[in-house]
Structure formats: structure tokens, C-alpha cells
Amino acid sequence: MKIPYSYLLLGPTAMFALGFLSNAVVIAANQGSMPVLVPGGCTPGMISEIHSCMVHSTHLKFLADWILVRGLGIASPGDFLEWGAYASFWPALTTWVGFIIKDFSKKF
Q1: Which domain holds residue 14?
Q2: Does residue 3 belong to any structural domain of this protein?
Q3: N or C, which end of the chain has less CB nearby within 10 Å?
């Protein structure tokens, strides 16, 4: 069954899936924790159970939390993809529903 205008829903879904997969890969590569690069250095007490300090032996550093976002904290590239998915989901869904209603109303 073909879903009309499915490309509108595919964008946010693909962005979320890619961001989630990116974060999952870096966590799996680092024994179940997300490495964090804290400006000014990091001490073990300042990191949560699911995060760890980024060190020389950290794997996939470019996918870890290293981007400083003022007012939010430190994020990963995967976080940005997930945020983009969240920001675009409702506008895409609303547009999709509008097109479906428009097509349905043409039939009657």
C-alpha cells in the first residue's frame, strides 16, 4: 500500500533514526557510556552514570558530546539530528494531513 506524500514524513523520521543510530554507535563503541568533552577539563564526579569523560582512548570522538551549546550544555552531532527531527515533525505532519484532506475533498 502506497502512502501518498510519504516523503513529507520520511524526512523527520530519517533524521531521528540517523541521530539515534549515531548516538547508539558511539555509546556501543565506548562500553555503554557517551563520552563528553567538557571545556576546561573533566572530573569523574561531574559526569552522570551514562556519560564518561572523553580521554585519549575514547572511540569515535567526532560522534560524542563535544559541541558546546550555550544555555543547553554539550551535545553530539546525533543530538542535532534528533532536535532537527523534533522541530520538523509537527510541521511535516500538519502539511501531510492537509494534503490528504485536500485530495480526499476533491473526490467528493
Answers
A1: 8-99
A2: no
A3: N
